[in-house]
Each structure stands twice: as structure tokens, then as C-alpha cells.
């Protein structure tokens, strides 16, 4: 069982769609922020590796990892406002990470703008698994990223179906 779904929805954004994915974490934004921008930490929970720290605006490369397969995609870091806002392109997508202090920690909101609405449940399922790993990483557990085909062994298909039902 993959547990409860995240607070997630899809909103029209011009001719594109934005997945809005929210997860509360028990750490303050200052402790969550490095996991979003540091390449070594990103490599432990995100679906990609980063060619550099995402702490300054400008070009970067985010490489999707699926077992031994690697797909490098151009990225541009557009906004960096530590420890509350990070925005970058990833291929044709736009990711906007917002960290807001809340009682007991941080509300992490990801706004992932997609060209294809048909991808929303698949992307939500992937970020769900990534957020689970991120939470464990921040709690100090020794973890590795769940990405690519490996996600199938961790309930990705069930999550995809449940998010598709939620977004219908």
C-alpha cells in the first residue's frame, strides 16, 4: 500500500496544465531548502541529477535517471529566493517549488507545469514517491532515490491510478 494521496490538483494554465502538489514536512524551510538545490542531496531523492547547484539563475542540465539509462534535459534556473522559492525549466516543463513555514515545519508546494494533461497522474505518482524519499532523507534515514522503472516496485502504478481518479 502506498498510503494516502498528497494534497494535489491540476489547474489549467493557458494551453498547458499545472500539477499542484502539496506535502507538509516536519523540518523548517531552512532545512528543506538544501535538498532542493544541492546536487548531492537531489541525487538521493529526485528523478534527476543536476549538473550544478541550483542556487543561482542560469543554465543547468537535469539528467533523468532510469536504471542505467540517462536522459539529459536542458534546464534554466529562473528564480532563486532562499529558502522559500525555486523555479526552473526542465525540458519543456516548468517547476516552481515554494516552501512556506507552517506550525510544525514546512508546507512544500510544487507547481509542475506540463504541456500534456495526459501526464498529470503519472507525474503526480512520481513526485509522490520522490516526496516520500525526501521526507525520509530529511529525517536522517539512509535512503536512495526511487526513479524510473524502479518506481513500479514501490506502488507507482497504483498511485498513478489513484491520482487519475482524483483528477478526473
TrEMBL record:
Alphabetical list of InterPro entries matching this protein: ASHA1/2-like_C, START-like_dom_sf
Domain Activator of Hsp90 ATPase homologue 1/2-like C-terminal residues, every copy: 28-138
Pfam families: AHSA1
Family: Belongs to the AHA1 family.
Protein name from the UniProt record: Activator of Hsp90 ATPase homologue 1/2-like C-terminal domain-containing protein
